[in-house]
Epoxyqueuosine reductase (Chryseobacterium camelliae), 326 residues
Amino acid sequence: MQGEIMNSNAEKYSQLIKSKARSFGFQNCGISAADFLEEDARPLETWLKNNFHGEMKYMENHFDKRLDPRLLVEGSKSVISLSYNYFPEEKISALENFKISKYAYAEDYHEVIKEILREMVADLQKEIGEFGFRVFVDSAPVMERSWARKSGIGWVGKNANLITRQSGSFYFLAEIICDLELVPDHATTDHCGTCRKCMDACPTQAIVSDKIVDGSKCISYATIELRDEIPVHFKNKMDDWMFGCDICQDVCPWNRFAAPNLQTRFRPNEALKNFRKGEWKELTQELFSEIFRKSPVKRTKFAGLKRNIEFLEQSSGTKSDSLPLK
């Protein structure tokens, strides 16, 4: 009898959580049992041994916690995975401009989505009662793509991004790891087939094989994570990206289904819409702090963004010097 009640509650709570997630603006919500990620252990170990994480040494930390949420959140029984659309209604012009990844057009997603998650959990607790939990938005050793894949939100594409048939891949992932006994979902199937557009389009050949990205070759890594000088092998391959890179997502056929997000806090910063290369080259610390005060771009800091712009300028100069005169 007690088991039947527990199963009934698990089903009821699982449906409530998914309904609540939709009402709070999440695209998708899936559930996994908080167990050890057996099938991800060896690939993660190999990826680290190949030094595909470059100078992101933090990826070497908390190996066991990355694979087992019960070590990260004591007493956890379920991982609730959620996706939140960030595809912009309006793209910032690339004409005579340096490029910035779409996810960085507006406010910092870490803060925006964490606020939404906390409000959502507070609402859930009014109906379910108190339960133990932690919320995560790309801010702890959580294998978010693995959990989202396991919960059926999407599959991992050749570019290592999570992809859904309904909306592509322009969304953030978030998790609620909690001590509620819930009904786990099932993984979906892979729908990349023989397509390799993302692999062929990557100017630095960072996608070394199916679902394996050498982060040290990625333009996003070079413009955001890397603290030293940008290596010379990136010269003439950056395609004017000064923060992040969307190439592998832009060419993905599934992103033809991407629809504009409805979150007002993800609307493009007006200053970014008006800037062109001339303004970026004259950027000051004061202006950087003003424009990017609430932006994910602040992660690279003023010195990092200036370094990226200068590298792109030098690359452009080198490239143009090699072109024949007309």
The chain is about 40% helix and 10% strand.
